[in-house]
UniProtKB/TrEMBL annotation:
Keywords: Membrane, Transmembrane, Transmembrane helix, Transport. It comes from Papaver nudicaule (Iceland poppy). It comes from the Eukaryota. InterPro entries: MFS, MFS_dom, MFS_sugar_transport-like, MFS_trans_sf, Sugar_transporter_CS. It is a multi-pass membrane protein. Residues 262-286 are annotated as: Disordered. This is Major facilitator superfamily (MFS) profile domain-containing protein. PROSITE patterns: MFS, SUGAR_TRANSPORT_1. GO terms for cellular component: membrane. Residues 37-468 form the Major facilitator superfamily (MFS) profile domain. Its main location: membrane. The keyword Transmembrane applies. The lineage of its organism: Eukaryota, Viridiplantae, Streptophyta, Embryophyta, Tracheophyta.
């Protein structure tokens, strides 16, 4: 019989009753507190999109003013991606060891400072250096998304993460509008300077941001986690569950002891269970012993290696195909992201993350297949439009799924490393796929996209478990064998 209630509920709220962060969030629901967190994290998402979008306006302007070659112009964009590759990994480790707030504070400082100074760059070399630093700061995007996700109740987490993703589209629209107003009269330097100000707002409102209670639980700082939950309770006008707040892996063991007491249960090590393996203390992330190498080794531990490698394949395939299709369809409006986001929002919490991603990947293959042969222009445009909708949808869902499969102690590290692998796909895509098309090898280029998308979709099918409706874990890893159960982790 599936266990869906908390131990506190099963114990009737009496002495010894316990509850987890997920129990508390589920009972309090999505309210004013989460709305404020969404606004702050969304501001960061929009700011990142603006910094990326401006590259398409600044590059040609700088090339004309400074007489740059095409290769030098493309380097302005490439160094941003290179910086993001480094930043995504670095800030993930920082935030897992020192807190989500510390992670996105440093990234905001780096992004704003380098972004604003870019407007004052006296020469090409300094501009390249500063834009690379902007990329390092932008690599912290997964920290903000993970921070927001850790405040959302499990039942509708997917839908709210899609709504969070719409801030990226909002940022691209704002940047395009700003460029339309600024570039003709004031020039590219003003655009660079003004585009950095949304990140400044993150710094201004930083003191009002709370730390993730899940992070506090992983560090054993239960009282501080409870303080945040009490603040959520006050702002949402909802009561906390009765009992004592505990970390989720302790809570899970208590539930087993309550529902299935036996000698075997009492003898089980608290670091490993037959039906749900969890990370042992040796490998557990801690602020004083965990380093970058050990974080990576933990991602490749027996409990996580399958999910990690498959996630890398999906991120690489997603970024490679997404940026390739964007380059191939530059004449299409950036607003065609909206249909992809709407599609993801409609299905992610209904049919699940795995089925959503695999379906959209394979439908993308269907859209691309006819393009291996010559098609009328209107048919080509329609097929590319459909392919971009699907890839946008998968990109949105994978950024929901990725933080859900990792324990809180290495969540942002796991998402950051996966995002870095995706950046590699974004970097090599123009050199390979678009290069083939410019060399009049369209059939080969489309076939390459087809293969990459197909393998990404196939990799999704081999993910060990579905995360729809599941509670996030603090120190444990979801067991594949229990992927269809309702046991709270």
């Amino acid at each position: 019989m599936p266990l869906t209630g908390s131990f506190g509920e099963m114990g009737g709220g009496g002495e010894g009753a316990t509850y987890t962060v997920d129990d508390a969030l589920t009972k309090m629901g999505f309210g004013t507190f989460q709305g404020l967190v969404l606004a702050y994290a969304g501001m960061g998402q929009a700011a990142e999109a603006m910094e990326m979008m401006l590259l398409s306006f600044v590059g040609p302007a700088v090339q004309a003013e400074w007489g740059l070659s095409s290769r030098q112009e493309s380097m302005i964009t490439s160094v941003v991606f290179a910086g993001m590759l480094v930043g995504a990994y670095t800030w993930g480790i920082v935030s897992d060891n020192y807190g989500r707030r510390q992670g996105f504070l440093i990234t905001a400082i780096c992004t704003f400072s380098a972004g604003f100074l870019s407007a004052l760059a006296p020469n090409y070399g300094s501009l390249i250096f500063l834009r690379c630093l902007v990329g390092v700061g932008l690599g912290g995007g997964p920290v903000l998304s993970s921070w927001f996700l850790e405040f959302i109740p499990a039942a509708n987490r997917g839908t709210w993460m899609v709504i969070f993703s719409t801030f990226w589209t909002l940022g691209t629209v704002l940047e395009a509008s700003l460029a339309w107003l600024v570039m003709p009269t004031l020039g590219w330097r003003w655009l660079l300077g003004m585009s950095s100000f949304p990140t400044l707002f993150l710094l201004i409102f930083y003191k009002f941001t709370p730390e993730s209670p899940r992070y506090f639980c992983t560090k054993g700082r239960i009282d501080e986690a409870l303080s945040i939950l009490e603040k959520i309770s006050r702002l949402n006008g909802a009561e906390l569950p009765s009992g004592k707040l505990v970390s989720d892996h302790i809570h899970e063991l208590e539930m087993d002891e309550k529902c299935n007491p036996s000698e075997d249960t009492l003898l089980l090590s608290p670091t490993k269970r037959n039906d749900s393996p969890i990370v042992s203390p040796k490998n557990k992330v801690s602020s004083d012993t965990q380093g970058g190498l050990s974080s990576l080794l933990l991602l490749l531990s027996p409990e996580l290696v399958r999910s990690t490698l498959l996630l890398w394949i999906v991120f690489f395939g997603n970024a490679f195909s997404y940026y390739g299709l964007v380059l191939l369809t530059s004449e299409l409006s950036t607003q065609n992201k909206f249909p992809g986001l709407l599609l993801a929002a409609a299905i992610v919490d209904r049919i699940g993350r795995k089925l959503s991603m695999s379906t959209m990947f394979f439908i993308c293959c269907v859209f691309l297949l006819p393009l291996m042969f010559h098609q009328p222009e209107n048919i080509t445009t329609a097929l590319l439009f459909g392919a971009r909708i699907c890839i946008t949808g998968t990109f949105t869902v994978v950024y929901i799924y990725a933080p859900e499969i990792y324990p809180t102690s290495i969540r942002t590290t796991g998402v950051g490393v996966a995002s870095s692998v995706g950046r590699i796909g974004g970097i090599i895509c123009p050199m390979v796929a678009v290069g083939l098309i410019h060399g009049c090898h369209q059939t080969l280029a489309i076939f390459l996209f087809e293969v990459v998308v197909f393998f990404a979709g196939t990799a999704v099918l081999f993910f060990p478990f579905e995360t729809k409706g599941r509670e996030l874990t603090n120190n444990s890893v979801i067991s594949p064998s229990s992927s269809n159960s309702n046991i709270s982790l």
